[in-house]
């Protein structure tokens, strides 16, 4: 795993995971959400996979200690997604959206561990791909660099229907990052596990879609961006499929990158990783560490944060 590409065009994979914590989650629901994201983390980390984790404010607030653990030992980039799962941010005013995204950025960047690691949030992914022009303006005002609220050939900025790489949105500062799409039964659908579950696509069919898309981009200048959710891929058959796909991609010498890597390559108009990025994107099977959910820590600040009802920005 991780050997040099044999093909002329490398295959870049960006796995984007939304941590789903139900609004007003019970203790059982919260524990289930934690277990699901730990399952995904271990699947990736044992292979040395780089990936992007998307957090709502609810998720950041209720899993603070666990997120600190994950970001301190995993190859994770944090992006944010508003207040809670199923939020329709376009229903809010511009001022409300700025406030939501400002707090989201603060919460996301608080997912560090006592100064041992630094988390910088530059990315956004709207729930249900819902957004509007006010969202774009809010992202600009807060300095966000990318927006994952797009789907290749389905949801796109004018003139970018065919784009699969990130592209600069006209009259704005951020880059649109299209989630990949796949033709299934003559219908173009997003490579999104939640869509697959909601539309009765079996785990076996989902695996065929992921493998099929990876095979489809072979030799092409096209990245693979997959939208995952902890509620769908964090347990059961879909979790098994995720591990199988990762192994398949590793055997195909694909590179796993975070979203900002794709944006950097698009910005430079050079669809290749730098030497340092290439080294980081190579996988090393079986050398990563796994984690279990911890209920306490020797750090009083982290314990206090875990029990708090809101994140303290100074912590």
Can you describe what's shown?
It is a single chain. With 315 residues, the protein is α/β, with parallel strands linked by helices. It is built from 12 helices and 11 strands. The strands form 2 sheets. Strands 1, 2, 3, 4, 5, 6, 7, 10 and 11 form a 9-stranded mixed sheet that branches. Strands 8-9 form a two-stranded antiparallel ribbon. Strand 8 (181-184) and strand 9 form a beta hairpin. The longest helix has 19 residues, at 27-45. It is globular. Residues 1-7, 283-287 and 305-315 have low confidence and may be disordered.
List SSEs in N-to-C order.
EHEHHEHEHEEEEEHHEHHEHHH
SS content category:
alpha/beta
State the distance separating the first and last CA atoms.
39 Å
| Residue-averaged pLDDT | 88
The major pleated sheet works out as: 9 strands, mixed
Total beta-strand segments = 11
């Amino acid at each position: 795993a991780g050997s040099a590409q044999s093909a002329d065009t490398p295959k870049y994979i960006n796995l984007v995971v939304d941590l789903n914590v139900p609004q007003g989650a019970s203790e059982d629901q919260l524990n289930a959400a934690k277990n699901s994201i730990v399952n995904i983390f271990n699947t990736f980390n044992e292979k040395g996979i780089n990936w992007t984790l998307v957090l709502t404010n609810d998720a950041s607030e209720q899993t603070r200690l666990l997120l600190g653990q994950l970001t301190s030992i995993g190859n994770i980039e944090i992006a944010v997604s508003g207040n809670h799962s199923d939020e329709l941010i376009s229903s809010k005013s511009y001022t409300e959206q700025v406030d939501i995204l400002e707090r989201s950025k603060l919460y996301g960047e608080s997912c560090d561990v006592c100064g041992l690691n630094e988390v910088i949030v530059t990315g956004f992914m709207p729930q249900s791909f819902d957004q509007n022009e006010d969202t774009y303006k809010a992202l600009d005002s807060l300095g966000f660099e990318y927006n994952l609220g797009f789907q290749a050939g389905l949801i796109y900025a004018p003139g970018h229907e065919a784009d699969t790489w990130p592209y600069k949105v006209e009259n704005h500062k951020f880059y649109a990052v299209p989630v990949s799409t796949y033709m299934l039964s003559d219908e173009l659908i997003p490579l999104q596990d939640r869509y697959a579950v909601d539309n009765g696509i079996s785990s076996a069919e989902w695996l065929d879609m992921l493998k099929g898309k990876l095979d489809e981009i072979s030799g092409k200048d096209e990245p693979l961006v997959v939208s995952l959710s902890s509620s769908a891929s964090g347990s059961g058959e879909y979790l098994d499929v995720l591990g199988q796909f990762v192994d398949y991609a590793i055997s195909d010498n694909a590179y796993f990158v975070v979203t900002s890597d794709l944006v950097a390559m698009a910005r430079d108009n050079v669809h290749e990783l730098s030497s340092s990025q290439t080294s980081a994107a190579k996988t090393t099977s079986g050398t990563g560490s796994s984690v279990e959910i911890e209920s306490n820590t020797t750090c009083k600040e982290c314990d206090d944060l875990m029990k708090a009802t809101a994140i303290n920005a100074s912590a």
